[in-house]
Amino acid sequence: MNMFQPQAGANAWMSQFVDPNAWQAWLKMPPVDTRPITATIKEFGATIDPSVMAKLQNDYMQKMSALWQDMLSSKAPAISDKRFTGQEWQSNPVFAFNAAAYLLNARFLMSMAESVEATPKAKQKIRFAVQQMVDAMSPANFLATNPEAQKKLIETKGESLTKGISHMLEDLQKGHISHSDESAFEVGKNVANTEGAVVFENAIFQLIQYKPLTKKVYERPLLLIPPCINKYYILDLQPENSLVRYAVQEGHTVFLLSWVNPDAALGHLAWDDYIVDGAIRAINVVQEISGQEQINALGFCVGGTILATALALLYGQRENPVSSMTLLTSLLDFSNTGVIDVFIDEAQVAMREQSIGQGGLMPGRDFTSAFSSLRPNDLVWNYVSSNYLKGEDPPPFDLLYWNADATNLPGPMFCWYLRNLYLENSLRAPGKLSVAGEKIDLSRIDAPAFIYGSREDHIVPWTAAYESTVLVNPKKRSRNRFILGASGHIAGVINPPAKKKRSYWSNDQVIDDAQQWLNEATEHPGSWWPEWSAFLAKHAGKQINAPRKYGNAKHKEIEPAPGRYVKVKAG
Hints:
Elements: H1 10-15, H2 20-27, H3 35-43, H4 50-72, H5 87-91, H6 93-115, H7 120-136, H8 147-155, H9 159-174, E1 196-201, E2 205-210, E3 216-218, E4 222-225, H10 243-249, E5 254-259, H11 271-290, E6 295-300, H12 302-316, E7 322-328, H13 346-356, E8 361-362, H14 364-374, H15 376-389, H16 398-404, E9 409-410, H17 411-423, E10 434-435, E11 438-439, E12 449-454, H18 462-466, H19 468-471, E13 480-485, E14 503-506, H20 514-519, E15 522-525, H21 529-538, E16 543-545, E17 559-560
Parallel strand pairs: 4-5, 4-6, 6-7, 7-12, 12-13
Antiparallel strand pairs: 1-2, 1-17, 2-5, 3-16, 8-9, 10-11, 13-14, 14-15
Helix pairs in contact: 4-6, 6-7, 9-15, 11-12, 11-17, 13-17
């Protein structure tokens, strides 16, 4: 019997097993269809020890038998999974049993995946593939096996189903599942609305300068370089959770690089273009406008990788452009890329190189789908259940609105990034990579560094972020300050102090091993932002009168923030 299959109804379902002989016969049947996972295991050239498999099957049958006996004795199964905690699941014995049986089957299949004998990379891909199958087959994902959706269907006299179908058709038109009420937000109106102006632009980016909120500012400005895979306004959502606004309120003259959302005409751009005409050009313009030889610079995620590459190039040319560098959830060492590694191997990179490596675009919708698959229950099936099965309108949520605002990447740039960094991990090796004719050596960067990782980050594992403390200032590691924040890749970063949420860890000792660093670290309640602000203040110079206008004689105001580039939608 396959417990992933829907049941017709309580009476019909129970009548199959009131006869003990029928129960005994059922026990002899295969309890769960393992053929898909078996095929996946074979595809990767992996095996499972027969004795291990026999133990797993025996353990599974014992637990299924116990679950069945509880069912016959009207004992409700203990279910803590949030997908099945609703009253409709708990109060109906059929649905409660179906949920419990699904969870048991899911654990059995994942145990199989954990037990395979394979290379670490193959084993990770098997786990990922099996998890996708398991999550997709949840009874919460189907109208026939979701009692909450069925109840709503009856209560609304079919209106919930009509709305659900309408939501699904709308999402098919948009090309993605709606995670938020997208009509509730508008870039420049209630997200990305910190006051400022575009003071420079080229084909790759616009540079925004923000209006001061203090009478005095630090003389050295702050340049923010966000990831080019997403829109910049993750750093400037709404006033209460805007890192941009926080930095301005702390007395910094803030500049921000807003990447272009490239179309086919920019499909030729390469990694070198993003470094030279992107990050380095932005650094130079900020120096020119501020009149400062040194600035503070921050890079977030891929923006941090771009910033570090640009600085290594500049320091290799005997320039000294920054008084400090901040890296937020950024990879410089790509030896541990977490679950995202399932998408990157020689075959997949070669396929991308053949299709778009010489020109073309990596569509933003592909990034959205890939990142959603890393957390399918939270970012896919949860919304299938609520939006489609129950016909509910997704609530407004600025972060999820931003998450759906996709960005394309030029094919040559993206393929270079995949091969040289993710696949070959060449950035960490001094002199192995060349950018714009300059050998890249991260150890040449001569500036104090604030390095941040998020403890539950599934895109940049925090231990990988910690490796940057070894690569930057290797002979002066006490100049590096590492902070570990709670939560994940985005929620850990966007954690304003006023909300007094989460916590972070600090440890001033120079320690090679990340886990030892954490074991000896001190946990602090609340946001890490004040720690970063204190770090910046040490390297921002003296206080001066806040500038009265944007730009300077050479770089004049072009248009109000947030500018045109961030409003362009991916095709």
